Amino acid sequence: MSDFLTQILSQPQKPYALLYRPAVSLDKIEILQLTCEKTHFLDKALSADSHHGKLLVVPFCQVAKRGYHAINDETPILSMPITSRQWLPLSEAINRLPDLPISVTNTHFNLDDTQFGQRISQLIEQEIGQGAGSNFVLHRKLRTSLVDYHPEQLLSLYRRLLQTESSAYWCFLINTGDEAFIVVVNKNWPRL
To answer: Looking at the domain assignment, is residue 19 inside a domain?
Structure first.
């Protein structure tokens, strides 16, 4: 069996995903080799056959097709058939991922602490307090730009997350070849 991580390290611009899910395996990381297709139709993304399964990245604007309010920004669904998968010990993955210096600029949240706190208060008062529900997820986005970007920086950033994130439900890196997503889903996110 060929070593997928070696292939990714030698060609980091090709589509792949690195998934760390402690609830599935506390000491292993899943490595997926992918192809990337785009569509605006969820049915089409779900219907296409793939022998090894498929990884979907579904943009929020898709909720409008279920009758919910959302701005349709025409972001496509990323439908990524898995061409192969492999599990690697987490410690080995961390040791082999690059540890390059990363410089960032223009780092900011889309909402500052005061604005985010106001949203929480508003949600409690107007939604939860009025009986509209009790399980909501509020988020805010941290945005930054990498200085002198190259694909290996993504792998270095992901390595650091794996080393330092202690309360992740999921920690993943998805690279389509054109864009990348690094996400940490925290198992301790407050549920209001």
So the answer is: yes
Determine, yes or no, domain membership for 60: yes
What's the whole-model pTM score? 0.78
Tens of pLDDT, residue by residue over 155-189, are 999 999 999 887 777 889 999 988 888 888 776 55
Range of the domain at 27: 4-97+165-186
- Bridging pattern class, strands 104-109 and 142-146: antiparallel
Task: Please tell me the distance from the alpha carbon of residue 186 to that of residue 169, in angstroms, as a whole number.
Answer: 5
> Among residues 153, 149, 164, 155, which one has the least CA distance to residue 4?
155
Measured distance CA(167)–CA(11) in Å, rounded: 30
Q: What is the residue type of 128?
A: I
How far apart, in whole angstroms, are the C-alpha atoms of residue 88 and residue 34?
17
**3-state SS, residue 98:** coil
Question: 3-class DSSP state for residue 60?
Answer: helix
Sign of the dihedral defined by the CA atoms of residues 19, 21, 24, 25, in that order: positive
Q: Return d(Cα 54, Cα 126) in angstroms, integer.
A: 39
Mean per-residue pLDDT, 93-113: 92
107 located within any domain: no
169 found inside a domain: yes
The number of folded domains in the chain is 1
